[in-house]
Specification:
By secondary structure, this protein is an alpha/beta fold. The protein has six helices and ten strands. The chain has a six-stranded parallel β-sheet with strand order 1-10-9-5-2-3. Strands 4, 6, 7 and 8 form a four-stranded antiparallel β-sheet that branches. Bound molecules: 6-phosphogluconic acid (6PG). The site of 6-phosphogluconic acid has 15 residues, from loops.
Length: 257
């Protein structure tokens, strides 16, 4: 994540693109439009679009825009397969479920067939759910899974997906999915690993709000410390990485993006 040659940084394989927008509403629009561009390119080139959805609140606005005119008419939805970057260890109908949020904001309004939705089984024992999702990814995407697009958010602590501070996100790099215990929430989560994220053709990180500004400055301008800031492990190499940030989240950056 570090700009090349940054102090204590590492030469990242990907040079991220940055899109700075006014506010959360503009971020949702920009994220939704980027989704459409990736979807149209993938379906034109390969006849399908495999996307991993992000949880949390930031992407919700983009999902709602995608599920409504005009963007809903811009994508060949029956060629889209929906995966998830992470999930809380709760049943699919739980208010905390990322799947439930996506189902209500995007999948149901677009009448997406269940056959094209591959959720993480938050209702199962965490380790078993992680194993079964890794098997699912291998079955659906091959032994070295390549998604067309991975959507991510960033927490105020620099986490992404459910890669939280305190655990080296780059360890066990053979693992596709893991089930970390997240002490700050006293719960387990299920998350894809950087191995999956960094193999994607496109990664989009959407970050909005003043509460993210400190972490964003540390992630983009500070030393490479992925155990402290797990989102620094996101570096798709041959793929594209785009940060979509609003002015509030970018407000503590000392260098223009
Ligand atoms: C989750 C997400 C998580 C989220 C960040 C940002 O399950 O909550 O995967 O990584 O993207 O916590 O959340 P907000 O978008 O709500 O700020």
């Amino acid at each position: 994540m570090m700009p090349p040659g940054a102090p204590g940084g590492r030469e990242q394989r990907t040079k991220p693109a940055f899109v700075v927008v006014e506010d959360a509403a503009a971020l949702a629009q920009s994220l939704a439009e980027r989704f459409v561009v990736c979807a149209r390119r993938a379906t034109a080139e390969r006849g399908r679009f495999d996307v991993a959805l992000a949880g949390g609140s930031t992407p919700k606005g983009a999902y709602a825009l995608l599920a409504a005119p005009p963007l809903a008419a811009a994508v060949s939805w029956n060629q889209v397969r929906f995966f998830f970057g992470d999930e809380r260890c709760v049943p699919p109908g739980d208010p905390q479920s990322n799947y439930r949020m996506a189902r209500e904001a995007l999948l149901e309004p677009l009448r997406i067939s269940d056959a094209n939705v591959f959720r993480m089984r938050g209702e199962d024992a965490p380790a078993a759910a992680a194993r079964s999702y890794a098997e699912l990814l291998r079955r659906e995407l091959g032994t070295r899974p390549v998604l067309d697009l991975v959507l991510l958010g960033m927490g105020p602590d620099g986490h992404t997906a459910s890669l939280f501070p305190g655990t080296d996100p780059l360890s066990d790099d053979e693992l596709l999915v893991r089930a970390p215990y997240v002490a700050k929430f006293s719960t387990y989560r299920i998350t894809v690993t950087p191995r999956v994220i960094n193999a994607a053709r496109h990664v989009a990180i959407a970050t909005a709000g003043q509460e993210k500004a400190q972490a964003l400055a540390a992630v983009l301008e500070g030393p490479f410390e992925p155990i402290t800031y797990p989102i620094q492990s996101i570096d798709p190499g041959d793929g594209d990485l785009t940060w979509l940030v609003d002015r509030a989240a970018a407000s503590k950056l000392t260098r223009p993006l």
